[in-house]
Design brief:
2 copies of one chain form a homodimer. The first copy, chain A, is an alpha/beta fold. The first copy, chain A, has a domain at 3-251: Carbamate kinase. Helix content of chain A is 34%, strand content 27%. Chain A contains 12 helices and 22 strands. Chain A has helices at 16-31, 46-57, 63-70, 72-87, 119-126, 152-163, 197-205, 213-221, 279-289, 318-332, 359-369, 393-403, and strands at residues 3-8, 35-40, 92-95, 102-104, 113-116, 130-134, 137-139, 145-147, 168-173, 178-179, 191-192, 194-196, 226-230, 241-244, 258-262, 265-274, 294-299, 306-314, 336-340, 343-349, 376-380, 383-389. Chain A has an 8-stranded mixed β-sheet with strand order 3-6-2-1-9-13-14-12, sandwiched between helices. A 4-stranded antiparallel β-sheet of chain A has the order 15-20-22-21, with helices on both faces. In chain A, helix 6 packs parallel to helix 8 (213-221) and helix 11 crosses helix 12. In chain A, 48% of the residues are buried. Chains A and B meet through helix 1, helix 2, helix 3 and helix 4 of A and helix 1, helix 2, helix 3 and helix 4 of B.
Amino acid sequence: MALIVQKYGGTSVGSPERIKNVAKRIARWHARGHQLVVVVSAMSGETNRLIALAREVQSLPDPRELDVMVSTGEQVTIGLLAMALKDIGLKALSYTGAQVKIVTDSAYTKARILKIDEQRMRADLNDGCVVVVAGFQGVDEHGSITTLGRGGSDTTGVALAAALKADECQIYTDVDGVYTTDPRIVPEARRLKTITFEEMLEMASLGSKVLQTRSVEFAGKYKVRLRVLSSFDESDDDEGTLITFEEDENMEQAIISGIAFSRDEAKITILGVPDRPGIAYQILGPVGDANVDVDMIVQNVGHDGLTDFSFTVHRNDYQKTLKTLEPVIKHIQARGIVSGDKIAKVSVVGVGMRSHAGIASTAFRTLAEEGINIEMISTSEIKISVVIDEKYTELAVRVLHKAFNLDQAS
Amino acid sequence: MALIVQKYGGTSVGSPERIKNVAKRIARWHARGHQLVVVVSAMSGETNRLIALAREVQSLPDPRELDVMVSTGEQVTIGLLAMALKDIGLKALSYTGAQVKIVTDSAYTKARILKIDEQRMRADLNDGCVVVVAGFQGVDEHGSITTLGRGGSDTTGVALAAALKADECQIYTDVDGVYTTDPRIVPEARRLKTITFEEMLEMASLGSKVLQTRSVEFAGKYKVRLRVLSSFDESDDDEGTLITFEEDENMEQAIISGIAFSRDEAKITILGVPDRPGIAYQILGPVGDANVDVDMIVQNVGHDGLTDFSFTVHRNDYQKTLKTLEPVIKHIQARGIVSGDKIAKVSVVGVGMRSHAGIASTAFRTLAEEGINIEMISTSEIKISVVIDEKYTELAVRVLHKAFNLDQAS
């Protein structure tokens, strides 16, 4: 008997029929003797509907009140799923984030989980109950409702798995695992049996939308066994893609695991920045204070005491970031700012990179051969990311996928 | 400076535009120096949408889980109204029933309020905040979400007014007061400046849908000054209809205040019931245990040791009641059951009835002249109710309204 946390995303619970299917899937796992905690997202489209409604009332919705109303999306789903489970004879109880005391900080719309009280869930599980919990939401120390930001239901799933010391956290989604790249762009893309946490982290942060970044970090930190599966696969394939901690745990020995891409970013370059200590903090401090996450940061060697400083942010934060920077630019006496949101970030990811030379040059040559200009470059131990013109996204992904032989089983 | 509780119903908050109008109305009261607690319903249609969704998943939705999802309707509205208030410069905070500790029993979908902790609201009010509270919902002692049943937002409003010792509880709705009868059926119907609590109670329980019965009882019990107003009236008429405790407090001296009617009921007659002590309890005990409210009860003098026992219930509870009675009928060895839900209840209401004879005979004669058959009769000190065939509803209301000269100002 294992304790399993399952998380079902918005498309998996997108209609009454699909919710009933999810209930049947849960019943199959329950019948095998497992204890189950199930985290659900809002029905697909619901969160966007609520945000649009809020914007009709207030163009820039108050974050506290936005969380109050947006969190209802998941609350509807937990009620429906608990009904579906009871309807087929299982014991089930639904809980909001506040009810199972998923305590977060007070950063409305982007809150972080501080602690979870697992006692109530544990008692229900021992009582034979399936526990259904609303993803994406929590409650701050004052009792106000918070949300974890987009994709936060994955984080809820992993955080509950960590708090309950679950044997496995299964993320059910509309894809049946992690692929070498998006199969809609490259039909030859292959599903990976395993992927390391580090690679997954890079893939997730790069827009490979299978899992939310923070949930992967969380899983790594608390050593939660994480598996990505499809909620639509009827073939009883319960394998999907396992995310591993150790490179040698059933590891496919590919050098490169996949090509990720993201069209969710905008780039900002501050021109003629005085090249002195502390200047990066003077620029990015206020951006961080405005609760904007910065992704790539590039600063080249300066000359004449001046340098250019570039970084990327999520497109949703683009206007806010520009506004935040206005006084900063005056204060540090920079020459000006250039920016744009018609960009894409494409990345080559693989732990094999550590021990293999020449990956970067293969990537750059491949893009050059197609006449694709590289605007920014950023590298880590297991990843090479480039920012290019948005219109070349698909082309870049396709040629890189081919260049690294990702269409061939290793 | 007064402390005022305002309650806005579903049509009053039925769209972003209407919510903004409600915010402006609140701002006008706030500008006059009043402290305001505002209770809101779900946007019109939302509760029905959620119930329909639940039924797609489970034909008879689990009551606990139904409350979890149906309560989201009000939660969306409080967020939106708080945004609208902040957008025009007021301080505002929204709270769910659980957040302001509206503690109820655990009778899901029909819960009763046990207590309210007003401290948090009081602190916000003293801080200059408009406090926005979700109507219709509470939380039981185990922390589970409950709802108060249809129209429960009125009860929330009155209960908050009682807990806060508010100067007045204003119920904003889509009508501008209490009328002698439904103006859609009788165009000559007049608005009453005042009505007594007892009359209002009868009118409410009889389907005059201005206020929910329980809220009027609550207001009477805690001596809450209650006023019914229109949220659509732009003429700055803040008078509406005041519900009075004392018959002489600005009382219009009409004998009859109004004609109420209800098409929400079903009648059940148990035939050949052994006429012995305790038999009524043997029949209605199980019905009450099934959480069904019984309205009219009629038992006539029996003969040959047998009698017929009739009562009415809400149409929503009709099938449940019949099912509940199956074993009861066998057990008490009754002869059988006849029932129907194509009925209407029409009532003549007025405190003047106490001191005026002949009201009943006028009512019965008026109906007889139109050939309307009376199936059941029930009377109280200030009301005469008859059950008739549903198809005669409008006709009965019109002729009774005329017979008691209700179209003429007193």
